[in-house]
């Protein structure tokens, strides 16, 4: 029952122009998002997961800041080659995004109601009255009590969890085909995080949109996503259905990442697994496999040549060891 | 292993903060918390933002005095000490913070910052201080040449190591660590947690380990206290707490923690609503507004923290 592909990212690279030269923060990333699925994008800080999501929406200024290459196909149309005006029309209507920090994303001097109506008035040309009705409905959909009163309130009057719900409501205002959620619960407490993740799951089922969930938290991915992409230093190192990824991770980085998280059912007080060293800076990206300097299995070939993503059953892995032994 | 002997006792600690815009209101950050930290143990304090865990940590290290209540370090009542004496005693309690970059002078080399710790407490001569600092920096897994660098030249994990070195220099009897790993990526977090456990096993310090991440607290602690809205609602040895969770809040907190081995089909207790404001805390039991089991009795009287099994305390009317 293969669902239709909504977003097809092919070989996407993003290069930033800085005073000290050009840095490629995302290098040749490819993945697909299907209708109705939640795709997880995981990695540690600096792995390029947020840059990838913002590049899909072309949020970096192409005249000064950055340049993109590759293709981002939204239902077959390449977003990287359409005029920026056209892109603006798609943002918030076909693709929406929610961010980690709702307080700094919402406008502090405009009411919740105004900010909810805005996308519908711009994209769908609704009258204020129609937009008002829809907005109240949206607030109800995301589980905000007393929605009529909330319409007149300002962001600072709401709690962190409520603000994140408002952000989600705004993102959903025009029924997007694709929702990108960039660390939507990272700033929230666990009990509130549980509320927001439950909401995202139920909305995903009800509205049948594609969702890209970007997070550093493997456990959140394990619980909510159907497939996941693991990123390291701007590249996809592994892609797999979530059950496979956690039961049988193939890439040494994925293995290390999973092993270094403490679990509630561990005996405790034991040494945690450690990935030696730290993520290198973009200035000194290693030649060959980018993970090789921290990898326990690295060989001369790993240090010399860059491995490509290759199929291994239902998984895709970027590692030299996969071909020879069928797994590390 | 931890003995029964205590290193620190906090008795009926209250800490209120005035509300600047309204003289008649106070924020009750910590209410009626008593706890004991035993020699050589790691005591984990867990709770969500705004529950008062950091305030309690600051009161215990006497960075801020409590509104009422007493803190005993060994047999010394910290509240009764004159300022000079308090400062001397405070060598014995050292803190490690979440953001080490913010707690360091950006214009001072790390080596100078570390030797200064010994200088203000008039310990040793310059040569002795330097050798103590070189010694400690290696214990936390850095190299002596790092002492000539400035704070911004270090990564997050290395900064946390410097924070630990600074605290350990004075050989404190108690280390208070306030969210020491929450700003770090998981692979770095694992490095720091391992280091903390290694150091504790070498030096037998006692730790108060404050964090919001219950998996981390469980991994590292011998005993755990759970806070909610300024109150200690449950306290037990780590294994006991997880095997026989008693308080409804602790249950919800544990159930809310995402885990790799869980899937979303599993039943989960999702608490309704948000944390109430500590300015207008609910009457009776503070948790009753979000508690799935709350009864009329919960609104009337505040439950006391009492022993429900040996060494296991909970503050709930419904716990037998």
Q: How would you explain this protein's 3D organization?
A:
- The complex is a heterodimer of chains A (about 325) and B (about 325).
- Chain A is α/β, with parallel strands linked by helices.
- Helices cover about 35% and strands about 25% of the residues of chain A.
- In chain A, the strands form 2 sheets. In chain A, strands 6-7-8-3-9-10-12-11 form an 8-stranded mixed sheet, sandwiched between helices.
- Chain A is globular.
- The mean pLDDT of chain A is about 90.
- In chain B, the strands form 2 sheets. In chain B, strands 6-7-8-3-9-10-12-11 form an 8-stranded mixed sheet, with helices on both faces. Chain B has a 4-stranded antiparallel sheet with strand order 2-1-4-5, with helices on one face.
- At the A-B interface, helix 8, helix 9 and helix 11 of A face helix 6, helix 7 and helix 9 of B.
Low-confidence stretches of chain A: none
Determine the structural class of chain A based on helices, strands and strand pairing.
alpha/beta
Strand content of chain B: 15-25%
Report the top-level CATH class of chain B: Alpha Beta
What's the Cα radius of gyration of chain A? 21 Å
Cα shape of chain B: globular
């Amino acid at each position: 029952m293969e669902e239709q592909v909504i977003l097809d990212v092919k070989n996407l690279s993003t290069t930033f122009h800085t005073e000290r030269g050009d840095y490629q923060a995302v290098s040749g990333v490819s993945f697909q998002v299907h209708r109705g699925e939640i795709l997880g994008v995981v990695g540690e800080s600096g792995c390029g997961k947020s840059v990838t999501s913002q590049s899909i929406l072309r949020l970096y200024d192409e005249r000064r800041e950055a340049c993109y290459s590759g293709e981002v196909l939204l239902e077959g149309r390449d977003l990287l080659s359409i005029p920026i005006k056209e892109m603006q029309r798609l943002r918030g209507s076909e693709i929406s995004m929610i961010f980690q920090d709702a307080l700094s994303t919402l406008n502090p001097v405009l009411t919740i109601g105004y900010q909810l109506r805005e996308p519908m008035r711009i994209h769908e040309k609704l009258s204020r009255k129609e937009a008002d009705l829809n907005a109240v409905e949206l607030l109800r959909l995301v589980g905000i009590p007393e929605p009529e009163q909330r319409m007149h309130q300002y962001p600072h009057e709401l709690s962190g969890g409520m603000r994140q719900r408002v952000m989600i409501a705004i993102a959903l205002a025009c029924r997007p085909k694709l929702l990108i959620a960039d660390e939507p619960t990272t700033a929230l407490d666990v009990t509130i995080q549980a509320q927001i993740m439950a909401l995202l799951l139920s909305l995903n089922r009800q509205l049948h949109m594609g969702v890209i969930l970007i997070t550093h938290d493997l456990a959140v991915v394990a619980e909510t996503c159907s497939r996941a992409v693991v990123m390291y230093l701007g590249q996809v190192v592994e892609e797999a259905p979530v059950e496979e990824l956690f039961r049988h991770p193939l890439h040494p980085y994925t293995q290390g990442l999973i092993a270094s998280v403490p679990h509630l059912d561990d005996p405790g007080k034991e040494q945690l697994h450690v990935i030696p060293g730290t993520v290198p800076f973009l200035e000194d990206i290693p030649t060959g496999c980018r993970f090789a300097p921290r990898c326990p299995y690295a060989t001369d070939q790993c240090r010399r040549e860059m491995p490509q993503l290759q199929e291994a059953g239902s998984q895709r892995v970027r590692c030299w060891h996969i071909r020879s032994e069928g797994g590390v | 292993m931890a003995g029964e002997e205590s290193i620190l006792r906090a008795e009926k600690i209250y800490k209120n903060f005035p509300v600047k815009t309204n003289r008649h209101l106070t924020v009750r950050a910590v209410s009626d918390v008593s706890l004991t930290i035993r020699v050589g143990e790691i005591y984990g304090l867990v709770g969500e933002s705004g529950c008062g865990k950091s305030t309690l940590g600051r009161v215990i290290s006497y960075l801020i005095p409590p509104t009422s209540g007493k803190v005993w370090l060994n047999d010394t009542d910290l509240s009764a000490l004159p300022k000079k004496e308090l400062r001397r005693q405070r060598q014995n309690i050292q803190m490690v913070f979440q953001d080490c970059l913010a707690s360091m002078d950006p214009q001072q080399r790390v080596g100078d910052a570390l030797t200064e710790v010994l200088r203000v407490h008039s310990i040793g001569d310059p040569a002795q201080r330097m050798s103590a600092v070189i010694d400690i920096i290696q214990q936390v897994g850095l190299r002596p040449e790092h002492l000539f660098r400035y704070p911004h030249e270090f990564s997050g994990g290395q900064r946390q190591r410097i924070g630990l070195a600074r605290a350990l220099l004075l050989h404190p009897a108690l280390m208070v660590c306030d969210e020491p790993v929450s700003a770090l990526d998981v692979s770095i977090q694992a490095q720091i947690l391992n280091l903390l456990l290694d150091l504790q096993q070498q030096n037998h310090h006692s730790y108060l380990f404050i964090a919001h991440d219950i998996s981390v607290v469980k991994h590292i602690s011998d005993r755990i206290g759970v806070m909610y809205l300024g109150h200690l609602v449950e306290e037990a040895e780590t294994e006991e707490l997880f095997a026989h969770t008693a308080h409804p809040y602790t249950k919800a907190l544990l159930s809310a923690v995402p885990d790799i081995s869980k899937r979303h089909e599993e039943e989960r207790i999702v608490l309704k609503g948000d944390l109430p404001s500590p300015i207008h805390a609910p009457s009776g039991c503070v948790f009753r507004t979000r508690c799935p089991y709350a009864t009329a009795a919960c609104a009337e009287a505040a439950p006391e923290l009492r022993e429900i099994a040996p060494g296991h305390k909970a503050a709930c009317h419904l716990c037998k």
